Structure formats: C-alpha cells, structure tokens
Amino acid sequence: MAPLTPERLVFELRAAGDPAIAPDGRWVAFVLAEARPGQRRSTSNIWLVDTASGQLRQLTRAPARDALPRFAPDSRTLAFVSDRSGEPALYLLPLDGGEPRELLRRKRPIVDLAWSPDGSKLVFVSPWAPDDDPARPAEAPPPVRVTRRIDYKQDNRGYLGDLRHHVFVVDVATGEERRLTSLLQDHNFPRWAPDGRSLAVQVANRNGMCSQLAVVDAESGSATIIGPELGNVGTWAWSPDGGRIVYTGDTEQTWQADVWLWERTTGAVRRVTHDLPVLPDAGFPTVQAPSMPVWLDDRRVLFHAIRAGASGHYVIDVETAELTAERTFQGLAAGFATDASARWVVQSFTSFERTGDLLLCDRWTGDQRFLTDLNGALLRETPPARWERFEVERDGLAIEAWLLVPPDFDPSLRYPLVLDVHGGPNGYYGWAFNAWQQLLATNGFLVLYANPRGSSSYGREFTLKVLRDWGGEDYRDLMAVLDRVLERPYVDPARIGIWGYSYGGYMTAWAISQSDRFAAAVCGAPCFDLESMYGTSDIGHHFGEIQWGGPPWVAREWYQAHSPATFAHRTRTPTLIIHGEADERCPIGQGEQMFVTLLKAGCEVEFARYPDGSHLFLRVGYPDHRCDAYRRLLDWFHCHLGGPQPAGAAGE
If DSSP codes are grouped into helix, strand and coil, which group holds residue 652? Predict the structure, then answer.
C-alpha cells in the first residue's frame, strides 16, 4: 500500500475551486489549478460540467492563470479573468461557441467580479491608490516608502501604503470603466441590489480584522455605512425586493457571527440572533471568498456554516430567528453557489475519504451527488488514513478530537504519534482531508488533532475562552487529549511529536518549553515573542490587544508570562522551524528569535526559510517550496521518531 508523498500532494492532488452555477442550473464552471516542479507559480484553467450528465469540458487552455468564472444572467456568456496577455484582463466567452473577447486590461490584479442584474455591466475589484504608478520603469530604484497609517502592510500582499482594493464598474458593450469607491480602505465582494442601482460592499478596517458594510450608489458612488468601525461583517445578501440586507457579523471582534437585518427605508439595524450556534462561512482573506447567503422568500435565508468542524446548509427565519439545519455533512465545503431558483447548491467538498471535488445538492429532492472525481485514481493507489473521533471532558467542556491512523494500521504494533495544533487560536480542525496530516498518517504515524477551548464553530462562549489565556487552559486541553490517547497500547509514549503553524506554532513552541515529553517538534511560523509581534505583525496592534489584554506597555507582565520566548531556553526537544521570509502575519523575526534562543541553549534545532513566502506559503507559495516544507516535516519526524515497531521494541 503506497503512502502519499510530498510530490504527489503538491503536483498531483487537484481541487475544483471557485464553483459558479449558471442561473438556469444547466452548467457549473470551476477553476482547476496545476502545479509543476520548477515553476514559480501554479497555472489554472476554467472547466465546465453539465449538471445533468456530469460531462466535463475544458473551456480555457492558456498557460496562464484563468480565474473568477461568472455566468451572465441569461446563462449564455461567461466572464472570467486571465493574465494570458501578460497583464490582468477581463474576458467574455460565449458558451455557444467562439473565442474569448478581451473587455479590459489593467496593470493591477482583478480580485472579484459580478454581473449586474440586467447583464449590461460588470463590477470588479482591483487595487488603486491616489499616487499609484504600476508602470514605473523596472530599472528605476524603488521609491521611498513613507506612511502615517498603521495598516500600511498586509500578509500575502506586502507593503500597501494607500494602495487598497476599490470597486469599479465596466460597461459590457463599450468597455468603459469607472471607479465607484473613494474611502482609502479595502472594498471587497460587491453585490448588486436587485434593481441594479446600488451595491453592498464590505469595507475592511484594521487590515481586515474589522469590517463594515457599505451600500454604494452605482452611479454617484455615494455610500451609506452599516455597522460600527470595530465590528465585523462576514457575509451578506439583498432581499428579493431590495428593501433589506441580511448580514452576519458582530459589533465587536468575537470570531463568532450573529445574524443582522438592515432596513433600507429607515436605515435601522436589527439583531436577529444573539448566540448563533453555527459559524457562517466568511472565507479567508486573500485566498477564499465568503459563502454568501441566499434569500428563499421574504423571510427565510439559506446559508453555509460550520458547526463543530463540519459544514452544513442552514435556514434562518429573519422574523422569528428560528434556525433549521437543512443538510449537514461529515466534511468541509468551500464556496456556495446557487442557481436562480435556489434549487441547486454547488460547493467544493472535502472529507476524510475524498477531496477537492464538486458536490451538487438538490434542495427540492434532498439528493446530492459529486460532479467530479478528480483524485479518485490517486487515492485508490495511495489510500488516505483511517480515522476516529472522540471527546475528552475538561472543566465541564467537551473537547472534540480526532485520531488518524495509517490505512494499513495494525493494533499489535506500537506507533509514533504527532500532535497537530491548528492555527488561530480561533480556527478549527474538523472532518476534512488535510495534506500534512495525511502525509504523516499514510507514512506510518498516528496523527492526533483537537479543537481546544478558543476554537471556533462551537459558539461564542467557547471561542472567547482563549482570550488572555494563551498557553493556559488551551494548552491543558491539548495535553488532556494527548493523555487520553496515550492510554492505548499501540501508542508509544517515548515517541511523541508535536507540530503546528501560526498559533499552532505558538503552541508548539510553548509546549516544548513547558515539558520534555515530546521527542521531536516542527514549529511553523510561530508567535514566539508576543511583545515584538505586537508591533511587527500586520495585525498585531489590533489582534494583540484583544487576545493578549492590551498593548505591551499596559500588559507587559502578561506578555512575558505567556510568550514562549520567556521559557524557550529550557527547551530540549529537537526542533525544526519553518518560516516564510515575507511573512507579515507572524514575521520571520519570530522564527529567528526562536532559532537563536534554542541554538544558544544547546538544543538541536534547524531553521528552514522560504524566500518570498507569506504566512500562507503552504497554501499559495511556490510549489517547490511547499513540497520542500512537506518533505522536511516528514523527514524530521522520521529521523527523530522512527516508524511502527513490534510491541516491546519501542519506548520500553
């Protein structure tokens, strides 16, 4: 039984991204990316699948990045974005035959796209600044960067200054474009009102940590702002008559949204729910768009949300706040596209058994089926891990956990185990195919992961329990889960590893400074010295004040007591640190400080740095770098933990 390899995960595993369904329900368009060794980036093309027959058809074949497929209201034309000309451009493709027509070309990327209700215009989002000069000669020295704003940079985008995402409208017939927005903030995901006279747009503040909703006039650009500046808006949708907007968010940053309703005639905002038990899917900044809700009639709204690490389709009555689970999955989905009748829902879906495929759900009959089988052959040749879910009770809380075992698991053997800690801290793990977990599990390791207090998708109270307690009860939750699994005879307690990225890197650095129980560690982009991270991270100045109890000059004792940097000199666990050099979220200096501290303390430590790598380089970085990181993760644990051994031969 062949194990998965880093090369197969990066260069062969495929995923259908950004699905869009035609208003008439006949077609689904999606993006399929392809990575090749030696290339600096992946390429992507647009495919079409017939929802009735399942027949696949490749629409674009350029050696470029084709993205953002969007059907016209009449379902006859597909708009998309491509850099095939060497610059970002917007194209229109007739679906009954013919070549794509270039509508406009820009110097800056186009990051979102939507048709007007009558099909005469397209709205798109692209970076703009008052003093922007994207055509500056390459031989000219870079300009001096001077700023007076605290959000002058952002991870995965770099230095911004005043460069922000703005909303533009283009006439489909003439190609004439004009900018609608003027606030020097990011404007994201514009959605047309049913009458086409205005748009609802997210306005991001504090580097996306906070956001409001703006209702923008499609002609004048004048805007009405909804919600407080330090609140959050994640998803939204116009009512069928255009008189209301339902949105999910909060009046402060809690990482758990509620449902709200804005009335256009009065400007009043009404809170519909007060403790929504599910987490509406608001996407992930710069890499995944939110799953926008859909009105079913004048009071019921359909939306995609996560509960306890699993996706589901839910319906909320905005008058009574009654919540109904229409469909739940043992898996996680991304994207949320419906046809004009709201009968069909299509999403990209992943579970323990399959990943990256399009799932089509029929709301009228309750049926569901996959439209693609992109990785079936690969996963039959290299089967994924087997899994088990369990819970550990602590302090009256149920801590949900999963254990992955090799596909050829033999309980008579003793296995090394790796504890994998998710990021956030308000992220979550769940019922999904995770590349590095599958890499470890199919190569002979047990992989344990859990959602300790502070994880999202369990309600607001559970999510907020980690605030000002990093390395406290969250750490003890994880150790309790580990202790429970160590009771099993096939787990070798002398060969336990730990790995995590971002906040998971924090917890890895913290755990190995508090305990010698781990025989090896891999620490990815750690939050190591919280005081320096406050001023160098793109979000530290806002995120840190919420999570860590204030700025360092107010909460210095807390920062010192909860920073791995304070205790790292005690570490004896062999540690590999991996870090992107262009990381603006957990800057490379965090990894550098950890490396120097461990090295000076006499600990075995290795530091792998990835040029140009953002905080998200394991998802969107150079393919060769992603492959290298997976290989180093696997090799480090192989070297220090070994593989399955007969009972009595390991850790005895």
Answer: coil
pLDDT, tens digit, 9 for 90 and up, residues 247-294: 999 999 999 999 999 999 999 999 999 999 999 999 987 889 999 999
pLDDT value of residue 453? 98
Q: Tell me which of 141 and 316 has the higher pLDDT.
A: 316
Greatest alpha-carbon pair distance for the chain in Å reads: 77
Residue type, 614: S
Look up residue 60 and give its two tokens: 């674009």
Distance CA 628, CA 633 (A): 9
- Say what the pLDDT of residue 388 is: 98
pLDDT over 60 (residue 188) = yes
Q: Can you give the pTM of this predicted structure?
A: 0.96
Answer yes or no: is pLDDT of 650 > 70.
no
Write out pLDDT tens, residues 208-221.
Answer: 889 999 999 999 99
C-alpha angle 51-54-55 in degrees, rounded to nearest 5: 115
Q: Which amino acid is at 646?
A: P
**Spatial distance between the Cα atoms of 165 and 177, rounded to a whole number of angstroms:** 15
What single-letter DSSP state applies at residue 149? -
How are beta strands 210-217 and 77-82 bridged, if at all? unpaired
Q: How far apart are CA 81 and CA 78, in angstroms?
A: 10
Domain regions of the chain by residue span: 384-646
Paired strand residues for 123: 114, 169
Name the 3-class secondary structure at 391. strand
Task: Round to whole Å and give the CA distance between 99 and 546.
Answer: 52
Is the confidence at residue 195, as pLDDT, over 70?
yes
Q: How far apart are CA 87 and CA 85, in angstroms?
A: 5
Q: What is the DSSP string of 320-378?
A: T--EEEEEE-SSEEEEEEE-TTS-EEEEEEE-SS-EEEEEEEETTT--EEES--SSHHH
Average pLDDT rounded to a whole number, residues 37-44? 91
pLDDT of residue 485: 99
CA quadruple 98, 103, 107, 109: dihedral, nearest 10: -70
Return all residues near 140 (Cβ < 8 A) that are at least 6 apart. none
pLDDT at position 366 is 96
Distances (CA, A) of 630 to 429, 615, 641: 19, 15, 16
DSSP assignment, residue 296? Answer: S
Q: Is 611 exposed, middle or buried (0-12, 13-18, 19+ CB in 10 A)?
A: exposed
**Under CATH, which number does the domain 384-646 receive?**
3.40.50.1820
Buried b (16+ CB within 10 A) or exposed e, 48-87: bbebeeeeeeebbeeebbbbbbbbbbebebbbbbbbbeee
Q: Which amino acid makes up residue 13? A: L
